[in-house]
Specification:
Blueprint (H helix, E strand, L loop, with lengths): L3 H15 L1 E3 H8 L3 H13 L4 E3 L2 E3 L6 H8 L3 H11 L7 E4 L3 H9 L6 E5 L2 H6 L6 E5 L3 E3 L4 E3 L1 H8 L5 E4 L3 E3 L3 E4 L2 H13 L3 E4 L11 E4 L6 E3 L4 H8 L4 E3 L2
Parallel strand pairs: 4-5, 4-9, 5-6, 9-12, 12-14, 14-15
Antiparallel strand pairs: 1-3, 2-3, 7-8, 10-11, 11-13
C-alpha cells in the first residue's frame, strides 16, 4: 500500500480484530518498509487511535474516549470471562479489585447474594457496585490517574500495606511467561503491585490477546498468580498451567 491513509486504515482494522499489532508483521503484510510502519504508528498514536509498545502497538490507553465507549459497550467475551471469575469468589472475603473495563464488568457480574467486602482503586468499580445489596465497598484514597482511571499515589500504597485481602483480581495489560504481569502506567502499577503482594490469592483475567506480550511496568512474576482466567487456546495456556497456576476457561 503506497498511501498512508490506506495503511493506517488496515492497521486499525487489524488492531480492532486482534487487540495488538506487530510492526514486522505489518511491514511484511502491507509490503512497505519498517520505517513507514513506524511513522504510521507514530501518527496513529498522536491521534489517540493506539498505544505504541515495544515491537508494535496495542489498543489505546484507558483514559481515552475509547475507554468510555468500551465501558458502556457490550463485549460478550469479556462478560463471559468476568462471570467465570465471579464464580471463584466466596462469601466473607476481602476482595481487592484493580481498574479497567474488565474489572468493571466483573463488578457488574458478582452474584446478588454474595456477602463480601470489595476494596478497589477504581471509582468505576465502586459505582458499578453501588446498588449491590450485600457487598460493602471500600475505596482506596489517592489522586486520580487519568490514564488508568484509578486512584494512585504513595498514600494509596501505604493504605494497602495495612491490609491483607483474601483475594486480588487484576486485569493486566499483558501476561508473559518470562517477563511476568505488566501494566503500561507507572502510578497504577505501584498500587497494583502492592495489592498483589498483600493478597493471599491472586487471580488474573487475561484473554488470549494479552498473553505473550509485555509492558513497561512489572507488577508480579507470573508464578505469583494463583489462577488465570482466559479464553486462550489450550496449547497457549498450558505453559502457564505447568507453573502451578490454575487455568479457568469460559
Amino acid at each position: 500500500m503506497h498511501f498512508s491513509s490506506e495503511r493506517q486504515a488496515a492497521i486499525l482494522a487489524r488492531l480492532d480484530r486482534d487487540g495488538r499489532v506487530v510492526s514486522t508483521t505489518l511491514a511484511d503484510e502491507l509490503q512497505v518498509s519498517p520505517d513507514s510502519i513506524r511513522r504510521d504508528l507514530q501518527e496513529l498514536e498522536a491521534a489517540g487511535a493506539l498505544q505504541r509498545v515495544h515491537g508494535g502497538a496495542v489498543r489505546p490507553l484507558a483514559g481515552s474516549p475509547q475507554f468510555l465507549e468500551r465501558l458502556e459497550g457490550e463485549d460478550p467475551a469479556k462478560e463471559l470471562l468476568a462471570r467465570r471469575t465471579a464464580d471463584l469468589l466466596a462469601d466473607d472475603q476481602l476482595i481487592a479489585i484493580g481498574g479497567g473495563t474488565t474489572a468493571v464488568t466483573l463488578a457488574r457480574s458478582l452474584r446478588r447474594d454474595l456477602r463480601a467486602t470489595v476494596l478497589t482503586s477504581s471509582l468505576d468499580v465502586a459505582l458499578a457496585l453501588r446498588t449491590h445489596p450485600s457487598i460493602t465497598v471500600d475505596v482506596l484514597g489517592g489522586r486520580l490517574d487519568r490514564a488508568s482511571q484509578t486512584l494512585t499515589g504513595a498514600g494509596t500504597v501505604t493504605e494497602l500495606e495495612r491490609m491483607r485481602p483474601d483475594v486480588c483480581v487484576v486485569s493486566p495489560c499483558w501476561v508473559d511467561l518470562e517477563h511476568g504481569v505488566t501494566l503500561r502506567e507507572r502510578a497504577e502499577a505501584d498500587v497494583v503491585r502492592t495489592m498483589i503482594e498483600r493478597s493471599s490469592r491472586v487471580i488474573a483475567i487475561a484473554p488470549e490477546t494479552k498473553l505473550g506480550w509485555t509492558g513497561p511496568y512489572v507488577v508480579a512474576d507470573v508464578e505469583q498468580l494463583s489462577a488465570l482466567v482466559t479464553d486462550a487456546r489450550e496449547y497457549l495456556a498450558v505453559e502457564y498451567g505447568r507453573l502451578g497456576i490454575e487455568l479457568v476457561f469460559p
